[in-house]
Each structure stands twice: as structure tokens, then as C-alpha cells.
Design brief:
single chain; mainly alpha; 9 helices; 71% helix; 0% strand; elongated
């Protein structure tokens, strides 16, 4: 009864129709309002995490557990749609780019080495943020309007990725050093991304080897880069893959994501430097004002 109510009740302050795809102005406005309120909060929490290791670990884990709870909700809803019968639909297995921050944040208290922590935080600040922003821009990749409850989960999930990205970037203090030194954080995050990319393709291979290629496996398609799945719902990349083959599509996919993460890193760096300049100018003005009074 409850899943049916959740699936059919529209809580949005506007009618939801197919005409809203692939981009919905109302959802974007909701996101901007969310960003307006969450931005200062995540910066505040990031600063707290920077000063206290326990706050950092358990606050990050708390965000991860919150993501895990919404993922469990999604899996139950999908199972409900399939009447809790038949083999598991492996395309729903949570190991996409947008799913990884759930794991990396939840295990933070278990990580002891600072370099590994930096790598995970860098991944969340850059690639996790990229996943959250990309869905906000290209909403039809996750919004189905066939089941409102799944749309709620997807919207909340990707908004949380953006919040986690701001929090992680604040903790890392990207831009506090020279560009060359700060670039190491981008390298850490990219290395982590490439590692998960390889793991995702191994999972795709294992799914097909163990369960075959059928309506339940759909090639696995973790990270949307399965060599068995050519109908990718990603603009431009789907055309490149179908025209030039999987290898070219895979290289293009990897390069585009790395470029997107670098753009986000550059934005963090630029905002930090601009903030430092404004603070410095204010200090100079205050100093001049004191000298003039004397």
C-alpha cells in the first residue's frame, strides 16, 4: 500500500508531465534554492572537519550512511515494481559514478592513511560533484516521472552529492597553496576515479560471465562503460560508441569525465584565490584606515 502511494503522489509544486523532459526549469530552481542554503552549511562543516579528525571521520560516515539508507529505499522500490520476483536486475546494482561516494564516505573512519583519505575526499570533491551536477543539468538521465518516489530518491541523492562535494573541497582547502601543489589533489582524485573505473569494468565482465547477457544483466553496465552494452543513454558518447566502437567510446568517456573534474577543480581553485584576494584587500583597507587615523 505505502509503495503504491509513494509511487503515485506528486509532491512537487507543479504538474509533472513528459514535456518537462529532458530539462525541467522547476527542478533547477529547487536545486538553486537548495544550493543557496546548503553551501554555507557545508563550508561550515568542512571547516569543522579540517580542525578535528573525529568530526571529519564520523560526519563523513554519517553522510555515507544517509546515502546508503536512500539506496536501500531505491532497491526496495525497484523490487516492488518487479513484484519481488525473478532474477536481480544487475543494471540496478549501485556501482555507478554517482554511487561511489556512498561507499567512500561511509568507510572514512576505517581509513588510517592520510594519503588515502585525501584521495577519497578528492574523488568526492571532484568526480562526486561532477556526477551530482551533470544530473542537475541533464535531468532526463534519472527522472522517469513513471514513479514519483524513485524521482524523489534520485533528486535527493544527486543534491547530496553536490553537498558532499562542497564539504569535501572545503575540508581539502583546495587553492590554499600554489596551483602546482594544489594539482596533486586533482591527481589523487583522478587516480581513485581510474581505479574505480577498472573495478566497474571487471564487475561488468563478471556479471555477464556468470549470468549471461539478457534482460536482467543488460551487460552489467557499471559506470555506463560495459563492453557488452552499446545503447548508452549519454549524449554524444552514445553516438561515438555506436559509430566508432567501444574502445573509442571508452577513451572518450574517460577523457570527458577527467576534463569535467579538472574544470570543477579549477573552479574551486579560482573561488579560493578570489576569496583570499578579497580578504587581503579588506585587511589592507583596514590597515590604511588605522594609519590615517593615527
Amino acid at each position: 500500500m505505502l509503495p503504491r502511494i509513494l509511487a503515485n503522489y506528486n509532491p512537487f509544486p507543479f504538474p509533472v508531465t513528459e514535456q518537462l523532459k529532458p530539462w525541467c526549469l522547476e527542478i533547477t530552481i529547487i536545486f538553486l534554492c537548495f544550493l543557496f542554503f546548503i553551501f554555507p552549511l557545508m563550508i561550515f562543516l568542512g571547516l569543522k572537519a579540517r580542525k578535528n579528525d573525529k568530526i571529519r571521520d564520523y560526519l563523513t560516515m554519517g553522510i555515507g550512511l544517509l546515502l546508503i539508507s536512500t539506496e536501500i529505499y531505491k532497491q526496495i522500490l525497484f523490487a516492488y515494481h518487479y513484484n519481488f520476483e525473478g532474477p536481480y536486475h544487475w543494471s540496478l546494482f549501485p556501482f555507478q559514478l554517482c554511487s561511489i561516494p556512498m561507499y567512500t564516505s561511509a568507510i572514512m573512519p576505517l581509513i588510517k592513511k592520510d594519503k588515502i583519505k585525501k584521495s577519497l575526499f578528492s574523488f568526492m570533491a571532484l568526480y562526486g560533484m561532477l556526477g551530482g551536477l551533470s544530473v542537475t543539468i541533464y535531468q532526463s538521465s534519472v527522472l522517469t516521472w513513471a514513479d514519483y518516489s524513485l524521482d524523489y530518491q534520485s533528486i535527493i541523492w544527486h543534491f547530496m552529492l553536490v553537498a558532499l562535494g562542497i564539504y569535501s573541497a572545503t575540508y581539502l582547502n583546495i587553492g590554499s597553496e600554489t596551483f602546482k601543489k594544489s594539482l596533486k589533489l586533482y591527481q589523487y582524485g583522478t587516480f581513485t576515479f581510474l581505479l574505480f573505473l577498472v573495478v566497474a569494468e571487471i564487475i561488468n565482465l563478471l556479471i555477464v560471465l556468470n549470468h549471461g547477457y539478457n534482460e536482467y544483466t543488460e551487460g552489467g553496465n557499471m559506470f555506463y562503460i560495459s563492453m557488452f552494452m552499446f545503447n548508452l543513454d549519454i549524449p554524444v558518447l552514445s553516438t561515438v560508441t555506436s559509430t566508432c566502437g567501444w574502445y573509442i567510446g571508452f577513451i572518450g568517456y574517460t577523457f570527458v569525465l577527467m576534463l569535467g573534474a579538472f574544470a570543477i577543480f579549477s573552479a574551486y581553485y579560482g573561488i579560493k584565490k578570489l576569496t583570499q584576494k578579497i580578504k587581503l584587500d579588506d585587511k589592507i583597507k583596514n590597515l590604511k584606515s588605522k594609519l590615517n587615523k593615527n
